[in-house]
Amino acid sequence: MNYEVIMNTSTGSNVNVSKCTAFMNSAKKSIMGVSKKYLLRITILGGLIIAASSYSASAQIFVKVRPAAPVVVRTTAPSPRHVWIGEEWTVRNGVYVHTGGYWALPPHPGWVWISGHWIHDRRGEQWVPGHWARR
Fold it and tell me: Concatenated DSSP letters for 25-65?
């Protein structure tokens, strides 16, 4: 095998470029191998966390008796574009909490608010949340 020899002018010593290049390539491969393994593990862990959180967020809560909505006084709209969000419920710590009674701007011009509602089945009452929709 032929090696290229270069004279290092600052120290006066000879440097074998091929051996240096081979060493750098092997170091780069081992670093990249660790990085790829680490990146793969982080990606899998992140996917599991996202899957677990979306599973828990989609849990359905049923109650035997609908909670009574508090009386909310509707104030004047801050602008003509604002839409009143009336009765709305959110699950917090396994209990429905009233979160309605506020003004909100549509996310896009021309969108309308579809009010939430309660549904009843053999398991009890369940809240179906309101949402924005195109007109």
Answer: HHHHHHHHHHHHHHHHHHHHHHHHHHHHHHHHHT----BSS
